[in-house]
Fold:
Amino acid sequence: MAPSWTSSPTRQRSPLLTGLNIQPGTAGYLQFLVVAKTILDPADPVNFAGHLSTATLPNLLVDQSGATPQAAKALLTQAAYCDQVVPNPFNFILDSTAGSTPMLLDPSFGTGTGTFQLFYKFTGSTPDLTTCPAPGGTNIPANAVTHGFFTDFVDSAMTTQGQSDAAAFLLNGTNPNSLVVLP
Structure:
């Protein structure tokens, strides 16, 4: 799978790659991706997501020997339907690895509460929530939600709902609805 930064429509061609005449689709570009992934993958958040609420990593701030584990963290993950910056599959991999539930294919998704939320706009019919066009495509559905919905106020109802659900989770431990559908 290609890294999300190679498929994001907001990416810009690196001046370094341009200066080295490395073009997408060439052997040089593939070699660049392999080297970049070799360097960056160890710091990929998905490698740590499974250690946030279970099997926590050592707390080296209080015990440099590594014998004392970190406290488990409570997690709430929120995703924008058809996110055009970080494509949904990458969000789903990260969030499921972190232990957020219920995820899309779980029979209880959309029928109750959980620690994973998917936000989408209602436009008269329910979309297939497991598919979205590739980022940068021309067929972005009308019910897509912006990547920065949590803070951008492009859709104030989405922003308000996302912030309210996060605040209730942080203050009271209240699990929000797993599917957020707003007009």
About this structure: The beta strands are 77-80, 116-121, 179-182. Residues 77-182 form one domain. The first strand starts at residue 77 and ends at 80. The mean pLDDT is 88.
